[in-house]
Structures are given as C-alpha cells and as structure tokens.
Amino acid sequence: MRQRLGILIGLVLLVLILIGLNAATYVQRERTPDNEIMPNRSSFNSGATGSQALYSLLAETGRNAVRWRSPVDALLTEKRDSPATFVVIGQTRRPFDDTEVKQLLEWVDGGGRLVLIDRNPTEAFLKPIALWEFTHKTNDLEMLFGSNPADQKQMTSGMPASRPVQPSVLTRNVNAVQTSRFASHIETARKANENAAVTVTGYGSTRLTGQSIRSDVGSASTKYLQSGPPPATQSPQRDPHIPTVDSGEYEAPSFSAPVVHLIGNQRNVLVDVPYGAGEIVLLSDPYIVSNAGISLVDNAQLAVNVLTAGGGMVAFDEFHQGYGSNQNRVFEYFSGTPVIAIFGQIVLIAGLVFLCRSRRFARAVAEPEPDRLAKLEYVAAMAELQHRTRAFDLALENIYGEFRRRVSNLFGVDARGTGRRVLATMIAERIKGSADEIEDIMRKAEDIAHGETTSKKETIALAARIREIETELGMTRTVHRRTIR
User: Fold this and answer.
1) I want to staple 278 with a disulfide (CB 3.0 to 4.6 A). Which of 108, 257, 361, 415 is the partner?
2) In this structure, are residues 29 and 35 in contact, taking their beta carbons and an 8 Å threshold?
3) How far is it, in rounded angstroms, from Cα 430 to Cα 68?
4) For residues 295-320, b (16+ Cβ closer than 10 Å) or e, as one string?
5) Where does 20-91 show beta strands of DSSP type E?
6) In DSSP terms, which residues pair with 279 in a beta bridge?
C-alpha cells in the first residue's frame, strides 16, 4: 500500500510539474489585425473584415438570421428550418468541393437564393448558368498588401459612390453605396456558338446569330428591361452589340438574363441572375458588408435589401469559414491555450501507467493454491453434492439429527431414549406453541430421513420451520475461532 501511495504521489507531482512548465513556457500570441490579404469574413469576427455587424443588425431588427454551421447537404434534407437565402461572403477558409457546389446549385434550382459577396467568387458557381458567362475584373490588387481595412479613407480613396441603375427591391431606399477601391467589375456575356442561332419572338426575347450580347449600363438591353417594349410608332435606336432582327421583331433581353442593379466608376457592382426556380445574386465587394464599411452612406440598407429580398430565413455560411458543427467544441474553446497540450500529456502519462500495470517485468509467478484445510470446505462440498444429486432426504436427516441432539442437551434428557411426544411437549411449553404441530414436524422429518419420498419445496419448508424453533428456543449458533500464536 505504501508503495502504491508513493507512485500516486509521484504521478501527481509529475503532472503538476508539467502544468507549471507549460504555463511558464507558453507565450500568448498577439492577435494579428485583420488584413485584406487573408481576411476573415465570418459573422463571428468583430474585426474590420468580419461581418458580425451585419449579422447583429439583422438579428436585432427582427429579421430571421442564423449562422449555418452544417454541411451544404443539410440544405436539401432540412425541410422544416431550411433557409430562404444562403450567404457566402468572401473567400472561405474551407473551399467548396465539386459535390458541395452541385448540392448548393440544386438547392438554388429548387427555389433558394444564393448571395455571393466576393471580388472573385468561385467559378464553379457561375459555370452552370445556361447561356450566360460571368467574369470579374479587379484593379489595384497589388495594393492589398499595404492596405488597412480599418482605415475607411485608405480603402475608399479615389472611389466614387455607386448609384442604382434602376428602382428594384434590391435598391429600395438606396441613394448611394460606397465600395472600396478593390471592388471588382462584373461582366456578363451571352454564350453563343458560331454555327448555332437562337431565335425567340415576342417581348422579352432575344435573337442571336453567332454573336454575344454584353449587358452594360446604358445599353439598349437595360433600357428595355426598365421601360418595356418601345411604342409601335417608334423604332428603337440600334445598338451595335445587338444583332439585327427581322421586321416585326425588336431586340430585347430575355427575362432570364442577368439584371444590373448598381454601378460605380463604370463597374457593375450588383447583379442578379435567375437559376431554375431560384436566383443567384452577385455583389462584387465584401467591403460593403464588412464591419469597417457597412456604416458608410447606404451600405447597410443595401446589405439588408440584398439579404432579405427573398423573405424567410437568412443563413450565413459559417461551415466553410471554419466554424462547422462537426468540430470538437472543447478543443475549439481552448484553442491557443496550453490546456490542450497539458491534457495530451496527462493522457500520455495515464496510458503509460496502464501499460506498465498490465505488463510484468519479471518471471511468471505460479497461481496460489487453494487452502484445503478450510473448516467449512467439507460442509460446502457435502452441500454441493447433496444439491446436485437431489438428496433432500439426506440433507434433512443431517439437519433434524442435529436439531434433536441440541434440544435434548438443552432439556437435559437422553436424545435416543426420549420419545418424540415428550420432546414436542417440552418444546411447546418453552416456546408457548402447539405440541401437536411440533410433533407433526418431527414425525415428517423422521419419515423423510427413513426413506419416504419428498420434494425440494417440502424439504426447504421443514428445514425453515426447524430453524425457527431453534431461534425461539434461543439456541443460537456460535462460531469458535482458534487463535494461532
């Protein structure tokens, strides 16, 4: 016992020493300020590049905003609490794989809204859009290395405010939006094969003959989308980018074409395009919704409009920002502290202790031989033998014989010469019981001992009654122990 106590004390001291060493050698890493090279666009981030302010604005103004920490496939399986709008802000820490892109676009095709707020969104999201291709052009990217996202003047230097192109749900109550000088330009172009022609008549149709239509601000396509078809008495002004059409047809974009809502410095900043039963919204600058830029002009109003235009729940993608629900919350909570290292060392020490305790480092020791001189071994062996052979008569004979001998000694009479009736009468007088009942018990016991057929139940009942009579007579059994000196 003393040896084990010494080992236990030694282990405790070792653990305390390890804790002290970890605490003494731990150097707290200074928090790196947010930068545009490796921004953290998560809604959990309160820094300049985060979007915590936007999430708090939606939550505190009664909008249904949640942080989505589940994989993308949950959008298809979660029918009860499925969001109406799914928001992906900036380049995520965990990139989307092909399966996730396919599942997310399948969800959009079923009626969901995907909002991509990025200067260069994942190309896989835009490739499947039929008939249209998108390119993002960015400027001054080399200046990102020296930029401070918390400095509004530096981020917006030389960048005029963006203005709505047309009144829409996305630009409601928005007069101007301030982007950063790193905002990209969204260019949309109609896909067309040189040998194929697409001709659709009627308002809102387009005819292509081996050319591509570009959607730029101020073009005829945007004018038709806002004001509808031109009057019959007026002929629309020709646009060199739009192919010629036959008489009776006029050039106007399809209702499934991308729509530009916001421009600034000759750049398309906000574009939305239908996709199946849903739509994909492209916003070319995360600075608009970041904690540092959301307070400028009408940036907050535009962000609220874009995210809540579809109604229902707005889900911020936090799974790909590194806050997935499948991560260990304990390790996530103690991340950056010496607690994880201390816990690992304690587990290693415990494993070594179990390994040492389960192995012997000496010769094998023979198993201890059982003591064949135990006083009750014969009794236990006989009881086991009688139980297995169902020799209930023999067991009751032993019990009744010992009972008759002890009762005769108690009353001072001869055990063999005294009759059954006399002993029953003496016992009845002592315990205030019935002599006939006691004599009947003694008679049944003697008959069974002489070979009468009996059962286990009857034997147990007679033995129990005999033990009760012994107890009432005060014949308690004492165990005599011999002291070995």
Assistant:
1) 108
2) no
3) 86
4) ebbbbbbbbbbbbbbbeebbbbbbbb
5) 65-68, 85-89
6) 113, 274
The pair of three-digit structure tokens given for residue 267, joined into one six-digit string:
């750049």
**Structural contact between residues 286 and 119, judged by C-beta atoms closer than 8 angstroms:** yes
Tell me 216's DSSP state. Answer: -
- C-alpha distances out from residue 401 to 276, 394, 448, Å: 98, 10, 12
Which residues are within 8 A (CB) of 9 and not within 5 positions of it... i.e. 6 or more apart? none
Shared domain for 322 and 402, answered yes or no, is no
125 and 182 assigned to the same domain: yes
pLDDT in tens, 125-164: 887 776 666 666 666 555 666 678 888 888 888 888 899 9
* DSSP H or E segment with residue 272: strand 267-275
Note whether 151 and 239 are same-domain residues.
yes
Band (pLDDT 50/70/90 cuts) for residue 173 is very high
SS (H, E, C) 312-366: CCEEEECCCCCCCCCCCHHHHHCCCCCHHHHHHHHHHHHHHHHHHHCCCCCCCCC
| Residue 255: Cβ within 10 Å count | 11
On whether both 95 and 145 belong to a single domain, the answer is yes
Whether 391 and 428 share a structural domain = yes
Model pLDDT for residues 67-112, shown as the tens digit of each residue: 998 889 888 887 777 899 999 998 888 889 999 999 999 999 899 9
CA distance 333 to 327: 11
47: in domain? no
CATH, residue 309? 3.40.50
The verdict on 305 and 214 lying in the same domain is: yes
